[in-house]
Amino acid sequence: MSLRFAILTALTEKSSSGIELARRFDRSIGYFWPASHQQIYRELDKLHADGLVSPVGDAPSTTRGNPKVMQVTDAGTEALREWANATEPTRKPRDPLMVRVRAAAVLDDVDLRDSLRQQLTDHESRLAEYVEIEQSFSGELDRRARLQLQILRSGIASERMWVQWCRETLGVLDDAD
Question: Transmembrane ranges (predicted)?
């Protein structure tokens, strides 16, 4: 997947200026597809050059006081639809922490506890944030909200797993001493 489809999805949800899009990313899609503001602007320019997004109306201005609001074109909608309907193989994870743990298994002088405590803190914080967001979902949910909730629940399950794993691994390291 590429950033372009994350941006097309966000702009399909709501036409936005670059800065609005970057702020929305920080509070939604960015949880599972992070991107810097610079990356978002660069990709937005490419999408515009490819005819997949265009300015709303005839607003040519790109000044700070009047930012250009971008919308998805018909070609952009079709590209997003084609990508969303495609299947792709399950990705194989690449996780440097797992390699570090493997290295610690064969090198007696490697102590991962500080790193694992930091990981634990980060995952606990993200879990608390996700649970707080989950509480904002209530009542009868439409299809869009139910699918967004499913994404959130995936994040919650993942963070819970990481919190448990970090605690267990810290226990293994403490027991080994």
Answer: none
Cα–Cα dist 75/57, whole Å: 17
Burial of residue 38 (number of CB atoms within 10 Å: 0-12, 13-18, 19+):
exposed
Burial pattern 68-97, b for ≥16 Cβ within 10 A else e, equals bbbebbeebeebbeeeeeeeeeeeeeeeee
Q: Kindly report, residue by residue over 54-94, the tens digit of the pLDDT.
A: 999 765 555 555 689 999 999 999 999 999 999 988 888 88
Residue 177, token pair as written in the block: 């001493």
The string of DSSP codes covering 39-89 is HHHHHHHHHHHTTSEEESTT----STTSPPEEEE-HHHHHHHHHHHH---P
**Domain ranges (residues) in the chain:** 3-85, 96-176
C-alpha–C-alpha distance, residues 120 and 105, integer Å = 20
Kindly give the pairing relationship between strand 69-72 and strand 16-17: antiparallel
Start-to-end C-alpha separation, the chain: 43
CA angle 149, 155, 158 (to 5 degrees): 140
Tell the CATH topology of 3-85: Arc Repressor Mutant, subunit A (1.10.10)
